[in-house]
Amino acid sequence: MLVLFESIGQDVRYALRMMRSSIGLTIIAILSLALGIGATTAIFSLVNALMLKPLPVREPGRLVEVARSDVPNVYTYLIWKQIQKQQDIFSGVFTYGYNKFDLAENGEKHSVWGLYVSGDYFNTLGVPAALGRTLAQSDDQPGLAPVCMISYGLWQRRYGESRSAVGRKLLLEGQACEIVGVAPRKFFGVEVGRTFEVMVPLESERVLEAKRPALDDAHEWWLSVVGRLKPGVSVSQADARLRILGPAVFKASLPPGEDEKNWRSLLQLTLDARPMRNGISYTRYVYGNTVLLLMVLVGVVLILACTNLANLLLARSTRRQGEIATRLALGASRWRLIRQLLTESMTLSLAGTMLGIFAARWGSRLLAAAISFNSEPSFLDFSWDSRLVAFTLATTLLCALLFGLAPALGTTRVPLYSAMKNGPILGRGKSWFSGAVLIVTQVSLSIVLLVTAGLLIRNLKALLAKDPGYEAKGVLVVEVESQGSDDDVERQAFVGDNLLTEMRSVPSVLSAARFVAPTSTSVNPNIVIQNPGSTERHLRSLCFFVSPDFFRTRHSPMLAGRDFNQEDRRTSSAVAIVSERAAKIFFPGLNPIGLKYKSIEGSSRVEEESVEIVGVVKDIDFRRPDAGPLNVVYRPIAQCMASCAPFGRYELRFNGPSSEIRERVRTLAAGLDSHVALNFGLLTDAFSEGIQRDRVTSTIATLIGLLAGALAVIGIYGVTSYATLQRTREIGVRMALGALPGAVFRMIVGDAITIVLVGIGLGVVAGYGTAQTIRGMLFGVTPADPITFTLVSFLMLFVAVIAAFLPAYRASKADPIISLRVE
User: Fold this and answer.
1) Which has more confidence, 601 or 437?
2) Whole-model pTM?
């Protein structure tokens, strides 16, 4: 064994000497591997953090999400209480809901993400506190003074890791909450991609949100439910039991006095049990397929990098054939030489991996930032674990074999008589064929990557070209909330109206409007259409409350009827403007202007009112552009009932720098009410977030495709140079017999193009197959898009000519006398 270690050490020292002797090749090899391994490791670390890493809790495999038969998987407080009461399959069950908590005392709003959690949250998960204690069932009782638990990060930033933080008061929504504990360093909740700064008992929501508690709103769907299976209960058994319990749970959770016919959608839902060993993740839902696609793409790039290195090592092996033949003639076994050459490859691979790890740490954080949403940055745990270490080591070994095995086998197959020669073995042989095969492989894989990138770019272009129904550029968005000193609804409405008037008077503001979305998130139909005869149709529609000039501010054209005006008040007739799609669904084939529908609204009871349609507006995209329009009803903000938020959002179309407008608006708001908190943004940010996944995917795929193209240039150049060197005597003979330099040039370039054309043909076929797998990610472009395939093919052909030009030019200028002397 000691002899083996000594022999391996000798191989490593020789490999290091060879690396120093070919410093140029060494640098190219290490940088190529660092780029390939770094990119692959970065993407895999994202896959690991988003999809594979288990939750840092006790027995995460025993946790299940209580899911609905539709999406999203959220529930009202009444439904949560019924699940808690009726379930008999969980040893522990809890609910939680995300909420933005305001930490600011006055001025511009300072919001942090936090959680309302039921009392069994930490006990069910089996997560202890890093300092102090966790929230308990005794904290989650109605009427108690609110307490809270803070994240490890907030404890570090705000309190400097002081143990005296426990017991101090933290101001949330204007209310003082006692800090009872600090969460563990690596615990970020059960939703992967999100984190929290504070945790508050669920029942404290009535205290912190006293103006409009969601717990008292039977139409507020915002709570997620998670359970820990009892010993001996499987996921399938839990799923079957929940399906049985579902109808009873939903029926028992109907608000008192409600008519079941208005809750038909609710009563049709069922419950499911979904394993959540790796947590729940909206980021995973949005970006899961994208991340897997990128993983495949960077894997292909790594193969291309290894192919390139194999070509370079094959070229270098030509100069080492004399050395290898001499060692074979002196008695070295072929296996011994293969081991030496593979050791050199492994040393290069390890060096590339070490540099690639640094690139991966930097790249993974860039990727996390790239997939973040404007409204909430993605938070992922990229810490190293056994899975990531094993992947990196396996990648290192695989790379060494991919680029080292073929040169090692080919180099050691040299005839012994070549040891007596000073030059390389000439003529076309198996090594030339191996290089040609590698180039065909490289070109075809590059075509696949470039086609994928091209289709994704065309997809993004189509999304950007789609008319969203409004002009986002030049619109400032101001989110306004009260910080809780004044609960008078009438005064808040007065302040809200006056704030809009003041905003319209700001210089450089062309128009301003107010926009309020109802706080209710009911899944039940809210529109009743009276059909001819006596039948009714119950439909579901989004409903937004807007001020006059909302559509003018957004540059959304009215298609029929009129806009809202100051005469549309609470005491006047109920009116509405509907979207183009809603008009077609509500009243197919009819002019909707002047027609009426019944609106169902209210949080504590069903309130029906007859609403007259006074206008039709162009469809506005409130989702991704490729998701299609929704049924949308717009109502005057003055006619908003109890479901409206106190202030809502203001949109200002402006000219000039937005910073001056922000300061002016901030001053005006403080003059009207010192307890108003503002949060500024741009409407273009909301539009960009809708296509963010496509922008990120196309950008990264393009970078990968360009990298693949660059590797193809290097590979074609390397193989052409290698092939030209092998044909040195042949070229000398041709030129001695009268061949012109131009003919030699065309011969070498033609050979390279022939190889590349074969690769392009195979790549087009493989690219079409790959395009079919991403069909669901494409909008406005087909998988067989002729423009993409044609441009990529001509680009690769052009690249081949450029790569083969220099070796062909050198060969055409060679002196035939010198070429013949090689033999």
Assistant:
1) 437
2) 0.79
